[in-house]
Amino acid sequence: MGEVVTVINKIVDALITDIQTATTLGLGAAPTVREWDEHPAIPAERGELPLAYVIPIVEGKDKIDMTMGGPNTFHTFPITFVAYYKGTTDSRTQVITDLRTTRNYAYSFIEYYRTKGNFIDRGQITSAELEAGYWEGGGNIIHFWIVKLNIKTSV
């Protein structure tokens, strides 16, 4: 079972590296990308926006297919990517503009893997689910997008 953990960790590390080098996601030249998750108000209060989190297997399960006595097991699991951005202002027009910009970043993330290829290290992206929106709190408008990648690998 140790091999699958190693493979999943390599996929997470490769995803983090990809995001740190992507230039179309609005995260800046040296973006903060963590394997972590926390409420967006926390990094907003620390002045850390924009930033992104990679969250493996939290929003789902690792589905394991195998043949008893067979040499391989096939794992299908989610890796969720969340990016947060501080809104410019809370005016209606600016919120609409920031929503569109944030949504565009989310689709740029999907497009990155469509054009690069749907493999991350030893994992294959089999599908993706996208959500975009904003959250108000602590005197901030925080725009976000979430992409849940479904990954398949064999060990």
Key attributes of the depicted protein:
STM4215-like; 38% strand; alpha+beta; seven-stranded mixed β-sheet; 3 helices; 7 strands; 155 residues
Record the SSE blueprint.
Elements: H1 2-21, E1 33-35, H2 41-45, E2 51-56, E3 63-66, E4 73-86, H3 92-116, E5 119-120, E6 123-137, E7 140-154
Parallel strand pairs: 1-2
Antiparallel strand pairs: 2-4, 3-4, 4-7, 5-6, 6-7
What would you note in describing this structure?
It is a single chain. The protein has 155 residues and is of the alpha+beta class. Strands 1, 2, 3, 4, 5, 6 and 7 form a 7-stranded mixed beta sheet that branches. The chain has one domain (2-154): STM4215-like, CATH 3.30.2000. Helix content is 32%, strand content 38%. The chain is built from 3 helices and 7 strands, in the order H-E-H-E-E-E-H-E-E-E.
Structural class: alpha+beta
Helix tally? 3
Bin the strand percentage. 35-45%
Proportion of helical residues: 25-40%
Bulk shape: elongated
Instruction: Pick out the low-confidence regions.
Output: none
Just give the CATH class: Alpha Beta
CATH topology value: STM4215-like
Q: Round the mean pLDDT to the nearest integer and report it.
A: 90
In total, how many domains does the architecture comprise?
A: 1
How far apart are the termini?
Answer: 9 Å
For the largest beta-sheet, the strand count, sense and barrel status come to: 7 strands, mixed
Total strands: the figure is: 7
Measured on Cα atoms, how large is the radius of gyration? 17 Å
The CATH architecture classification is: 2-Layer Sandwich
The sequence of SSEs as H and E is HEHEEEHEEE
